[in-house]
Amino acid sequence: MKKVYPDAKAALAGVLKDGMLICAGGFGLCGIPETLIKAIRDSGVKNLTIVSNNAGVDGAGLGLLLETRQIKKMISSYVGENKLFAQQYLAGELEIEFNPQGTLAERIRAGGAGIPAFFTRTGAGTDIAKGKEEREFDGSRYILERGIVADLSIVHAWMADTEGNLVYRKTARNFNPMMATAGKVTVAEVEHLVQPGDLNPDHIVTPGVYVKRIIHVPNAVKHIEQRTVRKREAAPAGTGEEV
């Protein structure tokens, strides 16, 4: 089965629909499938539920879908970098299902592993536990959390072969591997595309069996969410230089 598509629009054709649940990989702006996000924006689908650690920032990442009002609900753990997100939520225009970050990661991993639900101590005795089943194990209270299975998962990988085996690079690995397994259909955008056999098998993180479609994005933009630099120090007197 041919998995490589010429562009994001073609890779998402026949998959996108109103009201679907989408898992979007990335953490902040690191490792986000930006090309696929832009294609979703351009498709015009609406009333989406998006599962992502966060909602990008204003003007980038999932923030693009907030600008076009295509997201109805976010299932996230952190949204502090997006002013538009806060505005829409406070105005009652956006639903939010907050999750502790570890719980969110495990819900996605469980969905990909075929585990419908699991018990965790995180959130027991807090507002997070409201309406959820609770049980006691070894003297401690646990709450039941459901696994997440998405209609579509969109992920970003550093390298892949044409069979869909994915390799991630450093912190861009973040939520991408688990989301790749949790989608009924998974579409990956990759920076370097090679032929089967070119990847070291020990380096493959996501086996190609999970990936249905691939696009090649050789010139992916690497955004810096918050640039932090060291202040220059004064050079020793008489050198005429800066340190």
What does this structure look like?
With 243 residues, this protein is an alpha/beta fold. The protein has one domain (8-115, 146-216): Glutaconate Coenzyme A-transferase (3-Layer(aba) Sandwich). The protein has 6 helices and 11 strands. The chain has helices spanning 8-12, 34-43, 63-67, 83-90, 101-113, 176-182, and strands at 21-24, 48-51, 71-76, 95-98, 117-120, 134-137, 140-146, 152-161, 166-167, 186-194, 213-216. Strands 1, 2, 3, 4, 8, 9, 10 and 11 form an 8-stranded mixed β-sheet that branches. Strands 5-7-6 form a 3-stranded antiparallel β-sheet. Helix 2 links the parallel strand 1 and strand 2 (48-51). The longest helix is centred in the middle third of the chain and has 13 residues, at 101-113. The N and C termini lie far apart (57 Å).
Short descriptors:
Glutaconate Coenzyme A-transferase; 3-stranded antiparallel beta sheet; about 240 residues; alpha/beta; 11 strands; 8-stranded mixed beta sheet
Q: In brief, what are we looking at here?
A:
20% of the residues lie in helices and 24% in strands. With 243 residues, the chain is of the alpha/beta class.
How many structurally independent domains?
1
Second CATH tier, the architecture: 3-Layer(aba) Sandwich
Helical coverage, percent range: 10-25%
Q: Kindly provide the name of the CATH class.
A: Alpha Beta
* SS field, number of helical segments: 6
Q: What coarse outline follows from CA principal-axis ratios?
A: globular
CATH topology: Glutaconate Coenzyme A-transferase
Structural class: alpha/beta
Total strand segments? 11
Output the CATH homologous superfamily: Glutaconate Coenzyme A-transferase
Mean pLDDT: 92
Q: What is the distance, rounded to the nearest whole angstrom, between the alpha carbons of the first and last residues?
A: 57 Å
Order of helices and strands: HEHEHEHEHEEEEEHEE
